[in-house]
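[Discussion] Sanity-checking designs against the backbone

I'm trying to build intuition for which residues belong where. Below is a structure token string of 137 positions. I'd appreciate it if someone posts a full sequence so I can compare it with mine line by line.
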């Protein structure tokens, strides 16, 4: 799949701005960069990331379909093209957890925090409210 230079630049610029906002606003990431995070907290965080990654291909598919319904064909094609790229990223978190000596992602699924539940809800809502904003996730 190929996109115009302008589309690629627009998506990349938008993605970078959304990601920068996330990293600046996320206290855990700030502490992680400073080395102020315990091994246990890092394991919990990796489990949460893994849980998010498990759903990413589904989110991409839903957002792609929504973009197509709205006539945003370039965005729809871009998102659809990302599905294969994102599949299996939860395994990276699983491998990191194993290296930390933690249990499997499935054991964390039932115990994730209210904050993670809110984040998952926000991500699910992006397809209906801010399709280009999904790129920042």
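Best answer:
Here's mine. Compare freely.
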């Amino acid at each position: 799949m190929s996109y115009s230079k302008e589309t690629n630049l627009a998506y990349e610029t938008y993605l970078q701005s959304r990601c920068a906002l996330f990293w600046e606003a996320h206290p855990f990431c700030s502490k992680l960069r400073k080395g102020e995070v315990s091994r246990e907290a890092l394991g919990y965080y990796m489990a949460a990331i893994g849980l998010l990654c498990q759903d990413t291909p589904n989110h991409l598919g839903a957002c792609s379909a929504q973009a197509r319904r709205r006539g945003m064909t370039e965005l729809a094609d871009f998102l659809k093209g990302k599905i294969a790229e994102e599949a299996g990223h939860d395994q990276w978190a699983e491998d990191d957890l194993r290296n930390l000596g933690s249990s499997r992602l499935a054991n964390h699924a039932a115990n994730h925090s209210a904050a993670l539940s809110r984040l998952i809800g926000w991500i699910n809502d992006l397809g209906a409210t801010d399709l280009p904003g999904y790129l920042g996730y």
